[in-house]
Amino acid sequence: MRLTPLAVAVLSLLHEQPMHPYEMAQLMRERRTDHHVKVKAGSLYHTVDRLAENRFIEVVGTQRDGKRPERTVYAITQAGRDAVLERARVMLSTPAEEYPEFGNGLALIDELGREEAIAELERRESRLATGVAEDEKILTKLRDRQLPTVHTLHWRYSTARRAFDLQFTRELIDDLKHDRITWPPPTEDGSDDQTG
Fold it and tell me: Which residues belong to any copy of the Transcription regulator PadR N-terminal domain (predicted)?
């Protein structure tokens, strides 16, 4: 079984202690796991079922809270522990080849022309600034909850990336506005040369 990001998140939680899927979902919300892993209730339960079928986790009991339905409690197996630790080693040691859309957009920037490119980048800057402000609020909440900092590293990484993206975008806008970026010369008809 290939460990998806959600499967890694489940095994990571079960590495801490046995729990039922509803508790996993609560912890993922509390730790803002949804910022780097797509978490939906249906996909969480499907992932738990797949991990159990592949013997990476096992049922260790049930819990009942008041009149609520019984909940199945899972624990990580040695096979699951080995698999998630190996995946962690690879993820931490090997830079992944990712293909962010912004990089592809930059490859097309000269197609828009300088003024339109600046306008679109200013829209991006505004959205990123809003995101950075939201990130700060969430980081403050996470600190206030006094979670172990090891459980917020993914969030710190994501917010640092967004802050860098904002800084890069602002510098790019400034470079474009002050003609520090070489642009293709206009063609005879007055439009930008799109061949170079």
Answer: 10-83
